[in-house]
Amino acid sequence: MSLLEIREVTHYFGGLRALYNLNLTLEGGELLGLIGPNGAGKTTVFNLVSGFYTPTEGEILFLGEGLAGLRPHQVTARGMARTFQNIRLWNSLTVLENLCLSQHYQLGYGLLGAVLRTRSYHENERRIRKTAQQLLEILGLSHYADELPKNLPYGMQRRVEIGRALSLHPKLLLLDEPAAGMNPSEVDQLIDLVRWIRDEFNLTIWLIEHQMRVVMNLCEIIKVLDFGETIAEGSPAEVQQNSRVVQAYLGDEEVAYA
Amino acid sequence: MRRMIPFLLYLLVCIATVAGAQAGVFNAYVQLIIMYVGINIILSTSLNLINGYMGEFSVGHAGFMAVGAYITSILNVWLFTDSSVFGPSLLDPSSALYLFPVTLLAGGFGAALVGLLVAIPSFRTRGDYLAIITLAVNYIVKSSIENIQVIGGARGFMGMRNVVNSMKEVVDVPWVLIWILVFTGFTVWVLQRLVTSTYGKGIVAIRDDEIASEIMSVDTRHMKVVAFMLSSGLAGVAGGLFAHILGYINPGTFTIMKSTEILVMVYLGGMGSLSGSVLSAIGFTVILELFRPLQMAKWVVIPLLLILLMLFRPEGIMGHRELTDVFPWLRRFLAPQERRS
Q1: Cα A102 to Cα A207: distance, rounded to the nearest angstrom
Q2: Shortest Cα distance from B187 to chain A (angstroms)?
Q3: Which CATH number do you get for residue A186?
Q4: Which CB contacts under 8 angstroms, 24+ apart, belong to B209-214?
Q5: Are B208 and A113 in contact (CB < 8 Å)?
Q6: Would you call B212 an interface residue with chain A, using a CB distance cutoff of 8 Å?
Q7: Which pairs from B300-303 meet CB under 8 Å and 24+ separation?
Q8: CB pairs under 8 A between A and B
Q9: Does A171 lie at the interface with B, CB-CB under 8 angstroms?
Q10: I need a surface site. Which of A190, A252, B193, B209 has the fewest CB within 10 A?
Q11: Residues of A with CB below 8 A from B189's CB?
């Protein structure tokens, strides 16, 4: 059984075709990159995969199970976590609370437990807090634990968001433009971090990225989208040589020189 | 042992208040104000859960209060008194003594069910649109009651005084005051524990970023149902208590005006601050009493207060902070195990 299977997915927004006939299979353990010019439909793919949109046509299977009819938090609970293009942390909660709250699907207690402060409440809160603290520690964020995310430097916010995704114990991690807005040294750190996370947590990582340095350095397979259609797929070297990719990014030769 | 300190302090305040009322230190008027303070604390803290913690804008809190007030009153009058509407009492009038909290919670439960009228639309809509829905629910409740003639329609419903009297016949203490104190403490206790648990922070998560919350494994629909039902349920309990202060209620009490009054208390105290809501409910009730000679000019003063507040301190007196954040030394007594940055 493959980890993720996208079968002939087509998605429309009203009359606009955002995605056409997308096929993809992840067996597990890959580091896949999804690239394409602005508006190519990359984030739409992530929104479909994380259950936020339901595809107009086709189906998506995660661990052999169809995602149709599942709400995003149910998809997440099955082992899929993501980060967002524009960081979406909970800004009125501290970094530690952010990493605790993302374990909401496996709290182990409910309203009554919270109000009565039962033994199970205390045990579970301790467990959740411990997981969060351990993650902060290995990501080198411990001293930010009690800060509000909005007060952190940009690169650190990205790191917290990755930490929050990891606290969900995912099997598949989706990173939506993790290097956006980062300076070169932050980008270097990110590349190391992503590679290290993949080995440490034994994850399958799928990332969307604009910065070629990140994609070419990190990814083993790259899929290129343009206007919702797959125009190329292969290793970084293959994709770089592909004329359709060059065309999509730089335009036609004649046009370019016109 | 330290964890018991807030509880013991509150118990002390309650005993002092009841003893004061019993000994005649507080006359009937002062007692009345204390009772209104308690009810306003329940109303403002419970509305703060929606408007402050969850970040939605509910303007129909009085509607839920009305549901609770009518259900509790009808149950009490039906069960414990001989009335022209329901005939002779169903149970021994003295049993009101221990069944009163049960009927109160029944009223709260009824109000919580009506709260679903807002909770379910909130799955699909939010912000201004949801605010209009809460307004509509407030009117639906009020107009429905006005049109049910059996319970008095627009003329109102009475007979709760007899219920209170039959409780007093058994043991002569100010029962309504006592129950108001008990449920005020209960409300603040429940809400405080909810919003400081990771479970309850799911409500705050919705305010910060609903989409991210849903994708980050928070069941937002579940949290919305919990928040709306708990908030409206507590408002219903407040309504039930309110009905027994004067022994008379009419639908005209539970209009958008009343809802606005509660909103003012929430915004005055500060969004997402329980202690702010408690303080502002106390302050607001007392100030209103001082303004009583002004009569309807109160409706010039309250909105004016709102304008000034929005201009100069839009986040309210406390604004997302608790008393323990402003005065950290209080933490030693009030919340020894809590920690916030």
Answers
A1: 20
A2: 11
A3: 3.40.50.300
A4: B209/A88, B209/A89, B209/A90, B209/A91, B210/B126, B211/A52, B211/A88, B212/A84, B212/A88, B212/A89, B212/A90, B213/A90, B214/A52, B214/A71, B214/A72, B214/A73
A5: no
A6: yes
A7: B302/B260, B302/B261, B302/B264
A8: 104
A9: no
A10: A252
A11: 115
**Residue A87 lies in domain:** 4-257
Cβ contact, residue pair B199, A104, below 8 Å: yes
**Residues B199-212, mean pLDDT to the nearest whole number:** 95
Q: B232-250 pLDDT, tens per residue?
A: 999 999 999 999 998 999 9
How many domains is chain A partitioned into structurally?
1
Residue B340 lies in a domain: no
Contact call for B193 and A114, based on CB within 8 A? yes
Instruction: Say what the ipTM of the complex is.
Output: 0.90
B53 pLDDT more than 70: yes
Return the percentage of chain B with pLDDT > 70, whole number. 97
Q: Tell me whether residues A115 and B201 touch, CB distance under 8 A.
A: no
**What number is the average pLDDT over the span A31-51?**
91
- The CATH number for B301's domain is 1.10.3470
Q: Measured between CA atoms, how close is B72 to chain A, in angstroms?
A: 24
pTM over 0.80: yes
Residue B339 falls inside a structural domain:
no
Full residue range of the structural domain in which residue B144 is found: 2-334
Give the number of domains in chain B: 1
Radius of gyration of chain B (CA): 20
Q: What is the pLDDT of residues B278-336, one digit of tens each?
A: 999 999 999 888 877 877 777 787 788 878 888 988 888 887 788 888 888 877 766 54
The answer to whether A88 contacts B211, with C-beta atoms less than 8 Å apart, is: yes
